[in-house]
């Protein structure tokens, strides 16, 4: 059989695989539905019009052909950026030979493709080798059609200095240092339901105390709802999930190359919005998934507790869905509390937190986990620092002071690195015994219970404890103009509300800088700068001012809301 003349426009017979049926049998000895075809068949395959021979090429159709080399030169300029991908099941030999003859590779900037030497093209092995030699001699490189340069094209761009280590799984954030208490970190695992995600995130943001919030989205979600993701990124960390949802338990068992591609897709979707993710919330933490995260320089976040739970006590009709919403709330909180407290610990706190007043006496108590087989001496830590001599399940503190506030851990002394400790929080009101409130003006009989706790304002607390009050702070906010249009000469500054809608114009602020002397908590918010007559165009610069002074002395626990 002689090779077809791809040099000319004309018509050829294409041999395609037949549709699948239960009794179809194997394709080329393999149980597969190839879905492909070829212009080149053996004589046995040509004669077998019933089954199509060993490759099941029973579907035959006449198709038009063109001189591809001539078509490229006629339709493109040499200066055009052309990526040429060729996967034509044996026809590449005639096509490339013609392109070399015509000098068409002067038009090609990048060449992807495959060679199919076992296709019955009619060419001898020496003729095929000669073509390969000629390509090499002219320094024409053919990359694999599956993009063997994928890492070069999509290099990791996570900034230097980003917290954590690429590919490492973080199940809790721990302590930054013994002197810095932890914080609660809430993580929203966003599915594809934008309405539910918006409702939940706005509800959390409306809470009067700022809680660090991270939002993880699929690549498909970022593509479908870009404005929503950009809105979240103004105040929260945005991380990645996979490119799209998979059935539970399936993503962690697919081919590792598909896992890598999925993660790249998701990262690129955020790149299109000008966002660079550094954190990845995967379906599981298998080695293939963490390996793909490491390639992209992503830190892996995995929950201490999930809701709805994926292990332990699951949500079913009898224990959850049967009840009204007001009855489901405590059940949900109890499940989260149980997951946070039990999570395989050797010892557990009897209470997750205790709130007392200055001067009170308090006992912090742990209980042994009967399922644990560990024995030996116990050890306590406060904010990461070992408390020498404390080896019992209880820790007594007489005459509590503000300095006693913090996170307390109890564990078997030799096993701290296993993270099986019981953890609880001690909160200390800056009020004398029997008093509570920001100014301690409220009284309570029989001791103030924890539910009456109100964290004092930093200024009031300083006055009560004899500490120096915070000094006034001066903040300088600055924006840079892009291309200033001639008709837009006046600049307005606007302080948006919590939902960044219906922003209030700050009268008299018309420069690219805004100075705030003696910053107060009320100055916190979202600031917008724009050309006065063009606010509706939404071309403003947006930045956020956060004012320290609130107390967030709680242990870092990652809690996941999964939104399907």
From TrEMBL:
Residue span, Ig-like domain: 349-410
GO cellular component: extracellular region
Localization: Secreted
Keywords, alphabetical: Glycoprotein, Secreted
Keyword Secreted (UniProt): yes
InterPro entries: Ig-like_dom (IPR007110), Ig-like_dom_sf (IPR036179), Ig-like_fold (IPR013783), Ig_sub (IPR003599), MHC-II_Gamma/Thyroglobulin (IPR052001)
Keyword Glycoprotein: yes
Official protein name in the record: Uncharacterized protein LOC109481610
Species whose genome carries this gene: Branchiostoma belcheri (Amphioxus)
Gene designation per UniProt: LOC109481610
């Amino acid at each position: 059989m002689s090779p077809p003349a791809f040099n000319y426009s004309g018509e050829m017979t294409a041999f395609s695989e037949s549709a699948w049926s239960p009794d179809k049998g194997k394709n080329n000895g393999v149980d597969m539905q190839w879905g492909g075809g070829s212009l080149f068949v053996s004589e046995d395959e040509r004669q077998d019009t019933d089954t199509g021979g060993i490759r099941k090429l029973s579907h035959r159709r006449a198709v038009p052909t063109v001189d591809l080399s001539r078509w490229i030169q006629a339709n493109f300029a040499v200066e055009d950026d052309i990526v040429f991908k060729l996967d034509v099941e044996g026809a590449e030999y005639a096509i490339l030979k013609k392109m070399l003859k015509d000098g068409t590779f002067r038009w090609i900037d990048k060449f992807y493709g495959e060679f199919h030497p076992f296709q019955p093209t009619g060419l001898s092995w020496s003729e095929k080798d000669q073509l390969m030699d000629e390509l090499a001699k002219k320094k024409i490189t053919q990359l694999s059609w599956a993009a063997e340069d994928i890492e070069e094209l999509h290099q990791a761009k996570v900034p230097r200095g980003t917290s954590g280590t690429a590919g490492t799984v973080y199940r809790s954030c721990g302590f930054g240092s013994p002197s810095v208490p932890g914080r609660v970190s809430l993580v929203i695992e966003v599915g594809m339901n934008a309405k539910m995600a918006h409702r939940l995130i706005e509800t959390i943001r409306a809470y009067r105390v700022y809680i660090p919030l991270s939002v993880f989205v699929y690549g498909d979600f970022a593509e479908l709802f870009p404005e929503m993701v950009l809105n979240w990124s103004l105040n929260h960390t945005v991380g990645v999930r996979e490119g799209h949802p998979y059935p539970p338990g399936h993503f962690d068992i697919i081919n590792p190359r598909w896992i890598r591609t999925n993660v790249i897709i998701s990262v690129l979707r955020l790149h299109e919005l000008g966002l660079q993710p550094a954190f990845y919330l995967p379906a599981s933490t298998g080695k293939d998934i963490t390996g793909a995260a490491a390639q992209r320089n992503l830190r892996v976040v995995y929950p201490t507790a999930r809701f709805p739970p994926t292990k332990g006590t699951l949500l079913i009709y009898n224990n959850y869905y049967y009840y009204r919403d007001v009855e489901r709330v405590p059940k949900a909180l109890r499940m989260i509390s149980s997951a946070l407290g039990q999570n395989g610990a050797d010892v557990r706190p009897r209470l997750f937190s205790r709130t007392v007043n200055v001067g009170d006496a308090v006992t912090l108590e742990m209980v042994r986990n009967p399922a644990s087989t560990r024995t030996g001496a116990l050890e306590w830590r406060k904010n990461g620092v070992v408390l020498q001599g404390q080896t019992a399940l209880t820790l007594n503190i007489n005459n509590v002071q503000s300095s006693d506030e913090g996170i307390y851990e109890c564990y078997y002394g030799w096993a701290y690195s296993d993270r099986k400790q019981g953890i609880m929080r001690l909160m200390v009101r800056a009020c004398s015994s029997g008093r509570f409130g920001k100014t301690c003006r409220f009284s309570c009989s029989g001791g103030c219970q924890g539910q009456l706790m109100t964290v004092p304002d930093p200024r009031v607390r300083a006055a009560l404890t004899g500490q120096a009050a915070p000094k006034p702070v001066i903040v300088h906010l600055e924006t840079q103009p892009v291309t200033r249009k001639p008709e837009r000469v006046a600049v307005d500054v606007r302080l948006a509300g919590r939902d960044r809608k219906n922003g209030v114009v700050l009268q008299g602020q018309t420069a690219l800088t805004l100075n705030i002397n003696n910053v107060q908590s009320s100055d916190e918010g979202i600031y917008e700068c724009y050309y006065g007559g063009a606010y509706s165009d939404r071309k403003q610069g947006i930045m956020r001012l956060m004012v320290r002074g609130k107390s967030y002395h709680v242990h870092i626990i990652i809690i996941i809301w999964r939104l399907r």
